[in-house]
Design a protein that fits this description.
alpha/beta
């Protein structure tokens, strides 16, 4: 699942991950993701740091026991962003713009085994 407020970036991520074998749901905010009431825990979240409303790291902290592995993405590389992601439990942070392979590699590091069947 992708949570990204930039529509163009969201579509690009969606296309990349679909071509790579993932079933994708795209949300424009953390609130939209929450309101969708998805019954299954995602294989992996691709989560923008700067979202409207609640930030990506804050949202990730609040997921609790349903917290899947996540790759955080941002265009704001600074110590505060890195700290927020680390404090939320994020293991991967990619700085925009990044190449497709970097995202796929980050996903495989946080959620090994490849896309779910």
């Amino acid at each position: 699942m992708i949570v990204e407020d930039d529509a163009g970036m969201g579509r690009a991520l969606q296309r990349l991950l679909r071509v790579s074998g993932f079933d994708i749901l795209l949300f424009g905010s953390a609130e939209a993701y929450s309101h969708a009431n998805c019954m299954r825990v995602p294989y992996c979240l691709v989560l923008d740091v700067q979202l409207p409303g609640i930030s990506g790291p804050r949202f990730y902290e609040q997921l609790g026991y349903r917290r899947p592995p996540a790759v955080f993405i941002t265009s704001h590389d600074n110590p505060e962003t890195r700290s927020a992601v680390a404090c939320a439990g994020g293991l991967e942070l990619l700085i925009k713009p990044f190449v497709a392979k970097d995202l796929l590699d980050a996903i495989s590091r946080v959620a090994p085994g490849g896309p779910p069947p």
